[in-house]
Amino acid sequence: MEQKIRRDLNMGANLRALRDKSGLSQEKLCAELQRRGCDIGRTTYAKYESGELNIKASVIVTLKKIYNCSYDDFFAGLEEEIK
Question: What's this model's pTM, rounded to 2 decimal places?
Fold first, then answer.
């Protein structure tokens, strides 16, 4: 039986923009996430940014601390996708 992938809103562009703004590579960001208790590898994180995989709430909470940003920064522009 073939499993269908359910599409959801994609915050990948926002994740990449926040990472780029911070000046971190995916590798360095993942090392920092792992240091803070999130066991995320670069391949998994790349899938978050590309929209292939939905990001866990616990990772968003940790990223908020790393980037020192608001939760709104993760969800910016997604309301327009719903219309």
Answer: 0.84
